Amino acid sequence: MTTGSDALFARARAVTPGGVNSPVRAFNAVGGTPRFIASAQGPWLTDVDGNTYVDLICSWGPMLLGHAHPAVVAAVNEAVARGTSYGTPTENEVALVEAIVARTPVEQLRLVSSGTEATMSAIRLARGFTGRDVVVKFAGCYHGHVDSLLASAGSGLTTFSLPGTPGVPASSTELTLVLPYNDPDAVRAAFAEHGDRIACLITEAAPGNMGVVPPAQVDGRSFNAFLAETCRAHGALFVSDEVMTGFRVSASGQWGTDGAHEGWVPDLVTFGKVMGGGFPAAAFGGRADVMAHLAPEGPVYQAGTLSGNPVATAAGLATLTAATDEVYARLDVVADALRAGAAEAFTAAGVPHVIQSTGSMFSVFLTEDPVHDFAGAQRTDTAAYGAFFHAMLDAGVHLPPSAFEAWFVSASHDDRAVEQVLDALPAAARAAARAATGSTTRKAGA
Ligand SMILES: *Cc1c(COP(=O)(O)O)cnc(C)c1O
């Protein structure tokens, strides 16, 4: 049977590599044809063939309020009618940055257009501020497709890294150290050996790009607190990547669940996804004395034609304004219901599983043991996930088409949407059981 999605995918593949504009959309990790979506409303996606799905991707994070939220649509329509880009400063840019500063530990912020741009710029600024070149990151953490961050671990823990993809020269990653996540000894060893050369350590505030792997406790404090301390002791900057977690895990992000109580602040933070309300808007910011090194105030160059775009800032501001305590409470209710339903279904079907969360962001690892790092995440059963994914899709639930992604909910997920997911889970878990291999398979790329 050929569907509208099949026909569009064929057209797309003729003119676009893999038929998609971001790899994970292609369904390579689960097989089959991606659904071409024609419209979306609240928690529902409608594809070009008229099928509807409960959306558990939420644009990979941004759609905190659900699709076509009335306040966001109104703000966008109003902004569009006033012109779409001026290349001059605007009031909404100030208002959006003020809203972010009010909710997070950053003192100053620069707007950009993508999370990739935010992390790339934060690293340039960290290097410019410290006068050092080495960057530390963790295996399994994704920070966008920045050359120096597309690195895979070298042969030893404190050796420099290899490019993670063709097209990145060795010279771009030879100043990047890749360490295992949640491993304080590896961090101590890297700083002991290279501390005076390290410009910054960048980490996902709570990793979500290898599935959700919450920061562990280190001697009675969070892994993030330990990282912040270690960086400070060595004169390096601590860069917390909240592109995925910001304004989702809590009103501020992951920091609202650890740093706010523990009393530490990152030197630099990156944001994206939710803060754009579905438009390309992202940001990096932090300590005012560090941000003062950015052009035009300081010597570190960074710029963008569409940075702070008036339509994107209107959507972002409307989204943050509407993201009230009630919204976060609803996200928690929805996530709790789905986690409980998934656990029950997998248990009943005899499928080994671990559900890990930070706030309402969670993922289901089809594996025996809790996942602390990338090596653990890679033990998830991808064949079982593929079968599970397709059974859910057939029952009208659109999960992320990869076993290594978080499930994203929105405040618009009402009881009907939640019920549809809960109803689909038992048969899909049985499909996973039939396909289970227990094999160890690598992530197919984000
Ligand atoms: C999505 C993501 C990015 C990259 O953002 P883009 O807007 O896709 O460039 C960076 N860091 C994290 C943690 C992300 O989840």
From TrEMBL:
Q: GO CC annotations?
A: cytoplasm
Reaction(s) catalysed by this chain, per the record, are: (S)-4-amino-5-oxopentanoate = 5-aminolevulinate
GO MF entries: glutamate-1-semialdehyde 2,1-aminomutase activity; pyridoxal phosphate binding; transaminase activity
Write down the superkingdom of origin: Bacteria
InterPro entries linked to this entry: 4pyrrol_synth_GluAld_NH2Trfase (IPR004639), Aminotrans_3 (IPR005814), Aminotrans_3_PPA_site (IPR049704), PyrdxlP-dep_Trfase (IPR015424), PyrdxlP-dep_Trfase_major (IPR015421), PyrdxlP-dep_Trfase_small (IPR015422)
One Gene Ontology term from the biological process aspect of the record? protoporphyrinogen IX biosynthetic process
- For this UniProt record, give its keywords in alphabetical order, as a comma-separated list: Cytoplasm, Isomerase, Porphyrin biosynthesis, Pyridoxal phosphate
EC main group: isomerase
Instruction: Please give the pathway this protein is involved in.
Output: Porphyrin-containing compound metabolism; protoporphyrin-IX biosynthesis; 5-aminolevulinate from L-glutamyl-tRNA(Glu): step 2/2
Q: What is its EC number?
A: 5.4.3.8
Q: What compartments host this protein?
A: Cytoplasm
Which cofactor(s) are needed, names only? pyridoxal 5'-phosphate
- N6-(pyridoxal phosphate)lysine modification sites are K273
Summary of subunit composition and partner proteins: Homodimer.
Tell me which family the UniProt entry assigns to this protein.
Belongs to the class-III pyridoxal-phosphate-dependent aminotransferase family. HemL subfamily.
Supply the PANTHER family for this chain: GLUTAMATE-1-SEMIALDEHYDE 2,1-AMINOMUTASE (PTHR43713), GLUTAMATE-1-SEMIALDEHYDE 2,1-AMINOMUTASE 1, CHLOROPLASTIC-RELATED (PTHR43713:SF3)
Protein name according to UniProt: Glutamate-1-semialdehyde 2,1-aminomutase
- Protein's organism: Nocardioides faecalis
